[in-house]
Protein backbone atom coordinates (compact mmCIF):
# COMPACT_ATOMS: atom_id res chain seq x y z
CA UNK A 1 0.00 0.00 0.00
CA UNK A 2 2.84 2.33 0.81
CA UNK A 3 4.33 2.16 -2.63
CA UNK A 4 7.10 4.72 -2.83
CA UNK A 5 5.86 7.73 -4.74
CA UNK A 6 7.68 8.69 -7.90
CA UNK A 7 9.80 11.80 -7.73
CA UNK A 8 8.77 14.18 -10.52
CA UNK A 9 9.57 17.70 -11.52
CA UNK A 10 6.50 19.18 -13.15
CA UNK A 11 4.84 22.52 -12.79
CA UNK A 12 1.79 23.31 -14.89
CA UNK A 13 1.15 27.06 -15.10
CA UNK A 14 -1.98 27.64 -13.06
CA UNK A 15 -3.72 30.87 -12.15
CA UNK A 16 -4.31 30.68 -8.40
CA UNK A 17 -7.14 32.85 -7.18
CA UNK A 18 -8.26 32.66 -3.59
CA UNK A 19 -11.94 31.86 -3.14
CA UNK A 20 -14.38 31.79 -0.29
CA UNK A 21 -15.42 28.18 -0.71
CA UNK A 22 -13.40 25.15 -1.77
CA UNK A 23 -15.78 23.46 -4.19
CA UNK A 24 -16.98 26.53 -6.09
CA UNK A 25 -13.41 27.84 -6.06
CA UNK A 26 -11.94 24.66 -7.52
CA UNK A 27 -14.50 24.28 -10.29
CA UNK A 28 -14.28 27.98 -11.23
CA UNK A 29 -10.50 27.82 -11.44
CA UNK A 30 -10.49 24.53 -13.38
CA UNK A 31 -12.87 26.08 -15.92
CA UNK A 32 -10.83 29.26 -16.05
CA UNK A 33 -7.79 27.09 -16.68
CA UNK A 34 -9.59 25.82 -19.80
CA UNK A 35 -10.35 29.34 -20.99
CA UNK A 36 -13.87 29.59 -19.67
CA UNK A 37 -13.82 32.71 -17.52
CA UNK A 38 -16.33 32.30 -14.70
CA UNK A 39 -16.34 33.92 -11.29
CA UNK A 40 -16.71 31.97 -8.07
CA UNK A 41 -20.11 33.54 -7.22
CA UNK A 42 -21.38 32.77 -10.73
CA UNK A 43 -20.24 29.14 -10.38
CA UNK A 44 -21.89 28.91 -6.96
CA UNK A 45 -25.13 30.49 -8.14
CA UNK A 46 -25.54 28.42 -11.31
CA UNK A 47 -24.75 25.32 -9.26
CA UNK A 48 -27.68 26.33 -7.03
CA UNK A 49 -25.30 25.93 -4.11
CA UNK A 50 -27.26 27.97 -1.60
CA UNK A 51 -29.45 26.14 0.86
CA UNK A 52 -30.23 25.47 4.45
CA UNK A 53 -30.48 22.13 6.21
CA UNK A 54 -30.72 21.04 9.81
CA UNK A 55 -30.00 17.32 9.99
CA UNK A 56 -30.40 16.13 13.59
CA UNK A 57 -29.68 12.49 12.68
CA UNK A 58 -26.17 13.22 11.37
CA UNK A 59 -23.85 13.92 14.28
CA UNK A 60 -20.44 15.53 14.49
CA UNK A 61 -18.91 15.16 17.93
CA UNK A 62 -22.43 14.61 19.25
CA UNK A 63 -23.79 17.76 17.56
CA UNK A 64 -26.28 17.78 14.68
CA UNK A 65 -25.35 18.91 11.20
CA UNK A 66 -26.22 22.45 10.13
CA UNK A 67 -25.58 23.21 6.47
CA UNK A 68 -25.94 26.55 4.75
CA UNK A 69 -25.55 25.01 1.30
CA UNK A 70 -26.35 21.95 -0.76
CA UNK A 71 -24.41 18.72 -0.04
CA UNK A 72 -20.74 18.34 -1.04
CA UNK A 73 -20.32 17.38 -4.67
CA UNK A 74 -23.51 19.08 -5.77
CA UNK A 75 -21.80 22.33 -6.69
CA UNK A 76 -19.57 20.71 -9.30
CA UNK A 77 -22.37 18.48 -10.56
CA UNK A 78 -25.01 21.21 -10.54
CA UNK A 79 -22.86 23.74 -12.35
CA UNK A 80 -21.59 21.41 -15.04
CA UNK A 81 -25.00 19.84 -15.64
CA UNK A 82 -26.73 23.19 -16.13
CA UNK A 83 -24.03 24.34 -18.54
CA UNK A 84 -23.68 21.05 -20.44
CA UNK A 85 -20.05 20.63 -19.38
CA UNK A 86 -18.84 17.07 -19.14
CA UNK A 87 -16.61 16.18 -16.24
CA UNK A 88 -14.27 13.26 -15.90
CA UNK A 89 -14.55 11.71 -12.41
CA UNK A 90 -12.35 8.89 -11.18
CA UNK A 91 -12.16 7.06 -7.86
CA UNK A 92 -9.81 4.30 -6.76
CA UNK A 93 -9.94 1.20 -4.59
CA UNK A 94 -6.18 1.16 -3.97
CA UNK A 95 -4.38 4.28 -2.72
CA UNK A 96 -1.31 3.35 -4.78
CA UNK A 97 -3.40 3.39 -7.98
CA UNK A 98 -4.86 6.76 -7.06
CA UNK A 99 -1.45 8.30 -6.49
CA UNK A 100 -0.09 6.80 -9.70
CA UNK A 101 -3.03 8.15 -11.72
CA UNK A 102 -2.44 11.60 -10.23
CA UNK A 103 1.23 11.46 -11.24
CA UNK A 104 0.26 10.37 -14.75
CA UNK A 105 -2.18 13.25 -15.22
CA UNK A 106 0.47 15.68 -14.03
CA UNK A 107 2.99 14.14 -16.44
CA UNK A 108 0.49 14.73 -19.25
CA UNK A 109 0.37 18.37 -18.24
CA UNK A 110 -3.10 18.25 -16.75
CA UNK A 111 -4.03 20.03 -13.52
CA UNK A 112 -6.72 18.08 -11.69
CA UNK A 113 -9.15 18.69 -8.86
CA UNK A 114 -9.14 16.22 -5.99
CA UNK A 115 -11.23 15.58 -2.90
CA UNK A 116 -9.41 15.31 0.42
CA UNK A 117 -9.81 15.32 4.18
CA UNK A 118 -8.69 18.69 5.48
CA UNK A 119 -7.25 17.09 8.62
CA UNK A 120 -4.30 15.40 6.91
CA UNK A 121 -3.15 18.26 4.67
CA UNK A 122 0.24 19.23 6.05
CA UNK A 123 0.04 22.84 4.91
CA UNK A 124 -3.18 23.61 6.81
CA UNK A 125 -2.61 25.63 10.00
CA UNK A 126 -2.92 23.07 12.85
CA UNK A 127 -5.80 24.88 14.53
CA UNK A 128 -7.82 24.79 11.32
CA UNK A 129 -7.54 21.02 10.85
CA UNK A 130 -10.70 19.05 11.39
CA UNK A 131 -11.96 15.76 10.03
CA UNK A 132 -13.94 16.99 7.08
CA UNK A 133 -13.70 14.62 4.14
CA UNK A 134 -14.94 16.83 1.33
CA UNK A 135 -12.28 19.49 0.98
CA UNK A 136 -11.48 20.20 -2.67
CA UNK A 137 -8.25 21.51 -4.13
CA UNK A 138 -6.27 21.58 -7.37
CA UNK A 139 -2.96 19.77 -7.87
CA UNK A 140 -0.91 21.54 -10.54
CA UNK A 141 2.50 19.91 -10.25
CA UNK A 142 5.05 17.96 -8.29
CA UNK A 143 8.56 18.76 -7.16
CA UNK A 144 10.39 15.66 -5.96
CA UNK A 145 7.98 14.10 -3.49
CA UNK A 146 5.94 17.21 -2.85
CA UNK A 147 2.75 18.01 -4.69
CA UNK A 148 2.17 21.60 -5.76
CA UNK A 149 -1.29 22.66 -4.72
CA UNK A 150 -3.60 25.53 -5.49
CA UNK A 151 -5.96 25.34 -2.51
CA UNK A 152 -8.79 27.78 -3.21
CA UNK A 153 -9.31 28.76 0.41
CA UNK A 154 -5.62 29.53 1.05
CA UNK A 155 -4.15 32.86 0.01
CA UNK A 156 -0.91 31.45 -1.41
CA UNK A 157 0.24 28.43 -3.41
CA UNK A 158 1.19 25.54 -1.13
CA UNK A 159 2.88 22.14 -1.16
CA UNK A 160 1.95 18.86 0.44
CA UNK A 161 4.15 15.77 0.84
CA UNK A 162 3.03 12.59 -0.92
CA UNK A 163 2.36 10.63 2.29
CA UNK A 164 0.05 13.27 3.75
CA UNK A 165 -1.75 13.71 0.46
CA UNK A 166 -2.27 9.96 0.12
CA UNK A 167 -3.76 9.87 3.61
CA UNK A 168 -5.94 12.90 2.88
CA UNK A 169 -7.28 11.31 -0.32
CA UNK A 170 -7.99 7.92 1.17
CA UNK A 171 -9.55 8.52 4.57
CA UNK A 172 -12.54 6.36 5.31
CA UNK A 173 -15.92 7.26 6.74
CA UNK A 174 -18.71 9.64 5.81
CA UNK A 175 -18.10 11.35 2.44
CA UNK A 176 -14.94 9.28 2.01
CA UNK A 177 -13.13 10.75 -1.00
CA UNK A 178 -11.91 7.36 -2.31
CA UNK A 179 -9.15 9.24 -4.07
CA UNK A 180 -11.65 11.16 -6.23
CA UNK A 181 -10.02 13.22 -8.95
CA UNK A 182 -11.71 15.17 -11.70
CA UNK A 183 -11.30 17.63 -14.54
CA UNK A 184 -13.57 19.16 -17.21
CA UNK A 185 -13.54 16.89 -20.23
CA UNK A 186 -15.75 18.75 -22.65
CA UNK A 187 -16.92 22.35 -22.62
CA UNK A 188 -19.59 23.23 -25.22
CA UNK A 189 -18.49 26.07 -27.53
CA UNK A 190 -21.64 28.05 -26.76
CA UNK A 191 -22.99 28.31 -23.24
CA UNK A 192 -26.50 29.51 -22.51
CA UNK A 193 -25.70 31.30 -19.27
CA UNK A 194 -28.99 33.19 -19.10
CA UNK A 195 -31.02 30.00 -19.20
CA UNK A 196 -28.76 28.30 -16.64
CA UNK A 197 -29.07 31.28 -14.29
CA UNK A 198 -32.87 31.30 -14.51
CA UNK A 199 -33.13 27.57 -13.87
CA UNK A 200 -30.68 27.74 -10.98
CA UNK A 201 -32.54 30.61 -9.29
CA UNK A 202 -35.84 28.75 -9.64
CA UNK A 203 -34.24 25.64 -8.19
CA UNK A 204 -32.67 27.40 -5.20
CA UNK A 205 -35.73 29.46 -4.34
CA UNK A 206 -38.01 26.44 -4.77
CA UNK A 207 -35.78 24.42 -2.50
CA UNK A 208 -35.70 27.19 0.13
CA UNK A 209 -39.46 27.82 0.02
CA UNK A 210 -41.39 24.74 -1.01
CA UNK A 211 -39.60 21.50 -0.11
CA UNK A 212 -42.19 19.76 2.05
CA UNK A 213 -39.92 18.79 4.96
CA UNK A 214 -39.53 20.94 8.05
CA UNK A 215 -35.74 20.57 8.30
CA UNK A 216 -34.82 22.15 4.96
CA UNK A 217 -34.89 25.67 3.57
CA UNK A 218 -36.66 28.53 5.31
CA UNK A 219 -38.66 26.07 7.42
CA UNK A 220 -35.38 24.58 8.59
CA UNK A 221 -34.21 28.01 9.77
CA UNK A 222 -37.46 28.50 11.67
CA UNK A 223 -37.09 25.06 13.24
CA UNK A 224 -33.57 25.87 14.43
CA UNK A 225 -34.87 29.15 15.88
CA UNK A 226 -37.48 27.16 17.80
CA UNK A 227 -34.87 24.68 19.02
CA UNK A 228 -32.67 27.50 20.29
CA UNK A 229 -35.58 29.18 22.07
CA UNK A 230 -36.39 25.92 23.84
CA UNK A 231 -32.86 25.09 25.01
CA UNK A 232 -32.79 24.18 28.70
CA UNK A 233 -30.76 26.75 30.63
CA UNK A 234 -29.34 24.11 32.96
CA UNK A 235 -27.54 22.29 30.09
CA UNK A 236 -25.45 25.37 29.43
CA UNK A 237 -22.20 23.59 28.51
CA UNK A 238 -23.95 21.59 25.79
CA UNK A 239 -25.94 24.61 24.61
CA UNK A 240 -22.77 26.65 24.20
CA UNK A 241 -21.19 23.85 22.18
CA UNK A 242 -24.29 23.74 19.98
CA UNK A 243 -24.32 27.50 19.37
CA UNK A 244 -20.58 27.54 18.71
CA UNK A 245 -21.05 24.69 16.25
CA UNK A 246 -23.76 26.62 14.36
CA UNK A 247 -21.54 29.69 14.14
CA UNK A 248 -18.62 27.60 12.90
CA UNK A 249 -20.73 26.04 10.15
CA UNK A 250 -21.97 29.49 9.20
CA UNK A 251 -18.77 31.49 9.21
CA UNK A 252 -15.64 29.44 9.52
CA UNK A 253 -16.11 26.67 7.00
CA UNK A 254 -15.26 28.80 3.94
CA UNK A 255 -18.65 30.34 3.33
CA UNK A 256 -17.63 33.80 2.16
CA UNK A 257 -19.47 35.27 5.14
CA UNK A 258 -22.99 34.85 6.53
CA UNK A 259 -23.33 31.21 5.53
CA UNK A 260 -22.93 31.76 1.76
CA UNK A 261 -25.51 34.59 1.73
CA UNK A 262 -22.93 37.17 0.60
CA UNK A 263 -21.63 34.80 -2.06
CA UNK A 264 -25.16 34.34 -3.40
CA UNK A 265 -25.87 38.07 -3.28
CA UNK A 266 -22.73 38.59 -5.33
CA UNK A 267 -24.07 36.07 -7.85
CA UNK A 268 -27.42 37.89 -8.03
CA UNK A 269 -25.61 41.15 -8.66
CA UNK A 270 -23.61 39.64 -11.51
CA UNK A 271 -26.71 37.94 -12.91
CA UNK A 272 -28.61 41.26 -12.87
CA UNK A 273 -26.07 42.71 -15.28
CA UNK A 274 -26.01 39.65 -17.51
CA UNK A 275 -29.76 39.24 -17.82
CA UNK A 276 -30.47 42.97 -17.84
CA UNK A 277 -32.79 42.60 -14.86
CA UNK A 278 -32.05 45.36 -12.34
CA UNK A 279 -34.59 43.77 -10.02
CA UNK A 280 -32.05 41.06 -9.24
CA UNK A 281 -29.58 43.69 -8.05
CA UNK A 282 -32.22 45.04 -5.66
CA UNK A 283 -32.68 41.51 -4.32
CA UNK A 284 -28.90 41.24 -3.97
CA UNK A 285 -28.91 44.32 -1.73
CA UNK A 286 -31.69 42.88 0.39
CA UNK A 287 -29.93 39.55 0.72
CA UNK A 288 -26.83 41.46 1.79
CA UNK A 289 -28.86 43.06 4.56
CA UNK A 290 -30.09 39.63 5.68
CA UNK A 291 -26.48 38.42 5.57
CA UNK A 292 -25.54 41.26 7.91
CA UNK A 293 -28.22 40.03 10.29
CA UNK A 294 -26.80 36.49 10.10
CA UNK A 295 -23.40 37.96 11.00
CA UNK A 296 -24.90 39.82 13.98
CA UNK A 297 -26.51 36.57 15.09
CA UNK A 298 -23.10 34.86 14.87
CA UNK A 299 -21.40 37.61 16.85
CA UNK A 300 -24.06 37.56 19.57
CA UNK A 301 -24.01 33.77 19.82
CA UNK A 302 -20.20 33.73 20.05
CA UNK A 303 -20.14 36.44 22.69
CA UNK A 304 -22.77 34.59 24.73
CA UNK A 305 -20.66 31.44 24.53
CA UNK A 306 -17.66 33.34 25.83
CA UNK A 307 -19.65 35.14 28.56
CA UNK A 308 -19.12 38.57 27.03
CA UNK A 309 -22.87 38.93 26.73
CA UNK A 310 -25.60 37.48 28.98
CA UNK A 311 -26.98 34.25 27.52
CA UNK A 312 -30.31 35.00 25.85
CA UNK A 313 -31.74 32.16 23.75
CA UNK A 314 -34.84 34.20 22.93
CA UNK A 315 -32.80 36.98 21.33
CA UNK A 316 -30.89 34.52 19.11
CA UNK A 317 -34.12 32.78 18.11
CA UNK A 318 -35.72 36.13 17.21
CA UNK A 319 -32.75 37.00 15.02
CA UNK A 320 -33.00 33.69 13.18
CA UNK A 321 -36.74 34.09 12.67
CA UNK A 322 -36.13 37.54 11.28
CA UNK A 323 -33.59 36.08 8.82
CA UNK A 324 -36.04 33.33 7.84
CA UNK A 325 -38.92 35.75 7.17
CA UNK A 326 -36.79 38.17 5.19
CA UNK A 327 -35.22 35.40 3.15
CA UNK A 328 -38.65 33.94 2.36
CA UNK A 329 -39.78 37.33 1.01
CA UNK A 330 -36.63 37.66 -1.08
CA UNK A 331 -36.98 34.19 -2.61
CA UNK A 332 -40.62 34.81 -3.52
CA UNK A 333 -39.79 38.08 -5.24
CA UNK A 334 -36.84 36.45 -7.01
CA UNK A 335 -39.18 33.88 -8.48
CA UNK A 336 -41.56 36.58 -9.67
CA UNK A 337 -38.64 38.52 -11.11
CA UNK A 338 -37.23 35.64 -13.09
CA UNK A 339 -40.42 34.07 -14.44
CA UNK B 1 -21.23 44.04 4.65
CA UNK B 2 -19.06 46.83 3.26
CA UNK B 3 -15.42 46.29 2.46
CA UNK B 4 -14.21 48.58 5.26
CA UNK B 5 -16.41 46.69 7.74
CA UNK B 6 -14.67 43.36 7.08
CA UNK B 7 -13.05 42.48 10.40
CA UNK B 8 -9.26 42.27 10.47
CA UNK B 9 -8.56 40.92 13.94
CA UNK B 10 -5.46 38.84 13.21
CA UNK B 11 -6.63 35.45 14.43
CA UNK B 12 -3.69 33.39 15.67
CA UNK B 13 -5.24 30.22 14.22
CA UNK B 14 -4.79 31.65 10.70
CA UNK B 15 -1.02 31.86 11.29
CA UNK B 16 -0.64 34.94 9.13
CA UNK B 17 -2.93 33.65 6.37
CA UNK B 18 -6.19 35.29 5.46
CA UNK B 19 -9.44 34.05 3.99
CA UNK B 20 -11.84 35.56 1.50
CA UNK B 21 -15.16 37.16 2.30
CA UNK B 22 -17.47 38.78 -0.21
CA UNK B 23 -18.10 42.42 0.64
CA UNK B 24 -19.29 45.60 -1.10
CA UNK B 25 -16.85 48.20 -2.43
CA UNK B 26 -17.47 51.97 -2.56
CA UNK B 27 -19.64 51.59 -5.68
CA UNK B 28 -21.77 48.91 -4.00
CA UNK B 29 -20.26 46.11 -6.10
CA UNK B 30 -19.33 42.79 -4.53
CA UNK B 31 -15.60 42.06 -4.39
CA UNK B 32 -13.65 39.20 -2.78
CA UNK B 33 -12.02 40.78 0.27
CA UNK B 34 -9.33 39.26 2.48
CA UNK B 35 -10.10 38.84 6.18
CA UNK B 36 -7.41 37.83 8.66
CA UNK B 37 -9.66 37.00 11.57
CA UNK B 38 -12.93 37.81 13.32
CA UNK B 39 -13.73 37.74 17.00
CA UNK B 40 -16.83 35.55 16.57
CA UNK B 41 -14.97 32.92 14.57
CA UNK B 42 -12.03 32.94 16.93
CA UNK B 43 -14.26 32.35 19.95
CA UNK B 44 -16.06 29.37 18.44
CA UNK B 45 -12.88 27.85 17.01
CA UNK B 46 -11.15 28.08 20.40
CA UNK B 47 -14.24 26.56 21.95
CA UNK B 48 -14.23 23.58 19.57
CA UNK B 49 -10.53 22.92 20.13
CA UNK B 50 -10.85 23.36 23.91
CA UNK B 51 -13.64 20.77 23.94
CA UNK B 52 -11.38 18.18 22.28
CA UNK B 53 -8.58 19.08 24.69
CA UNK B 54 -10.92 18.78 27.65
CA UNK B 55 -12.01 15.31 26.53
CA UNK B 56 -8.41 14.27 25.82
CA UNK B 57 -7.31 15.42 29.28
CA UNK B 58 -10.17 13.52 30.92
CA UNK B 59 -9.27 10.40 28.93
CA UNK B 60 -5.62 10.85 29.91
CA UNK B 61 -6.55 10.93 33.61
CA UNK B 62 -8.75 7.86 33.23
CA UNK B 63 -5.94 5.99 31.46
CA UNK B 64 -3.46 7.02 34.19
CA UNK B 65 -5.75 5.61 36.85
CA UNK B 66 -6.28 2.43 34.87
CA UNK B 67 -9.95 3.16 34.14
CA UNK B 68 -9.42 3.88 30.44
CA UNK B 69 -7.12 3.12 27.56
CA UNK B 70 -4.45 5.18 25.82
CA UNK B 71 -6.42 4.64 22.62
CA UNK B 72 -9.23 6.82 23.94
CA UNK B 73 -6.76 9.58 24.70
CA UNK B 74 -5.25 9.38 21.19
CA UNK B 75 -8.74 9.43 19.67
CA UNK B 76 -9.59 12.80 21.23
CA UNK B 77 -6.03 14.05 20.63
CA UNK B 78 -6.61 13.49 16.90
CA UNK B 79 -9.90 15.43 17.14
CA UNK B 80 -12.09 12.38 16.75
CA UNK B 81 -14.84 10.80 18.80
CA UNK B 82 -16.19 7.25 18.94
CA UNK B 83 -18.52 7.70 15.98
CA UNK B 84 -15.81 9.18 13.79
CA UNK B 85 -13.26 6.57 14.85
CA UNK B 86 -15.73 3.81 14.00
CA UNK B 87 -16.38 5.38 10.59
CA UNK B 88 -12.71 5.82 9.78
CA UNK B 89 -11.67 2.34 10.87
CA UNK B 90 -14.72 0.56 9.51
CA UNK B 91 -15.41 -1.10 12.89
CA UNK B 92 -18.90 -1.12 14.35
CA UNK B 93 -19.46 1.45 17.07
CA UNK B 94 -19.96 -1.23 19.72
CA UNK B 95 -16.60 -2.76 18.84
CA UNK B 96 -14.85 0.59 19.12
CA UNK B 97 -16.52 1.16 22.48
CA UNK B 98 -15.29 -2.26 23.59
CA UNK B 99 -11.77 -1.66 22.27
CA UNK B 100 -11.58 1.54 24.25
CA UNK B 101 -11.69 -0.47 27.50
CA UNK B 102 -8.19 -0.94 28.91
CA UNK B 103 -8.23 -4.74 29.31
CA UNK B 104 -9.60 -5.35 25.82
CA UNK B 105 -7.31 -2.85 24.18
CA UNK B 106 -4.14 -4.56 25.44
CA UNK B 107 -5.17 -7.89 23.92
CA UNK B 108 -6.05 -6.37 20.55
CA UNK B 109 -4.73 -8.22 17.50
CA UNK B 110 -2.06 -6.64 15.31
CA UNK B 111 -4.50 -6.31 12.43
CA UNK B 112 -6.97 -4.33 14.52
CA UNK B 113 -4.17 -2.19 15.86
CA UNK B 114 -3.04 -1.49 12.32
CA UNK B 115 -6.51 -0.20 11.44
CA UNK B 116 -6.57 2.13 14.43
CA UNK B 117 -3.03 3.26 13.69
CA UNK B 118 -3.92 4.05 10.09
CA UNK B 119 -7.09 5.94 11.06
CA UNK B 120 -5.31 7.96 13.72
CA UNK B 121 -2.15 8.55 11.70
CA UNK B 122 0.06 6.98 14.40
CA UNK B 123 2.48 4.06 14.47
CA UNK B 124 0.84 0.89 15.93
CA UNK B 125 3.35 0.93 18.81
CA UNK B 126 2.37 4.47 19.73
CA UNK B 127 -1.21 3.47 20.47
CA UNK B 128 -0.30 2.15 23.95
CA UNK B 129 1.93 5.04 24.86
CA UNK B 130 0.50 7.67 27.15
CA UNK B 131 2.57 10.87 27.22
CA UNK B 132 3.66 12.38 30.56
CA UNK B 133 1.38 15.37 30.00
CA UNK B 134 -2.12 15.28 28.51
Q: What is the percentage of strand-forming residues of chain B?
A: 5-15%
Radius of gyration of chain B: 21 Å
Number of strands of chain A: 9
Secondary-structure element string of chain A: EHHEEHEHEEEEHEHHHHHH
> What is the number of independent domains of chain B?
2
Count of helix runs of chain B: 6
CATH class of the largest domain in chain B: Mainly Alpha
Quick recap:
The complex is a heterodimer of chains A (339) and B (134). Chain A is α+β, with helices and mostly antiparallel strands and 339 residues long.
Can you give a write-up of this model?
The complex is a heterodimer of chains A (339) and B (134). Chain A has 339 residues and is α+β, with helices and mostly antiparallel strands. Chain A has helices spanning 22-33, 40-46, 74-83, 95-107, 162-169, 193-210, 217-229, 236-252, 261-275, 278-306, 313-338; strands spanning 8-11, 50-60, 63-69, 86-90, 112-116, 135-144, 146-150, 158-161, 181-186. In chain A, a hairpin with a 7-residue loop joins strand 7 and strand 8 (158-161). Chain A is globular. The mean pLDDT of chain A is 95. Chain B is mostly helical. Helices cover 49% and strands 9% of the residues of chain B. Chain B has helices at 39-64, 70-77, 82-89, 93-99, 102-106, 110-120, and strands spanning 19-24, 30-35. In chain B, strand 1 and strand 2 form a beta hairpin. Chain B starts with 18 loop residues before the first strand and ends in a 14-residue tail after the last helix. At the A-B interface, helix 8, helix 9 and helix 10 of A face strand 1, strand 2, helix 1 and helix 3 of B.
Keyword list:
heterodimer, A: 339 residues, alpha+beta, Cathepsin B, Chain A, two-stranded antiparallel sheet, globular, B: 134 residues, mainly alpha, 2 domains, 49% helix
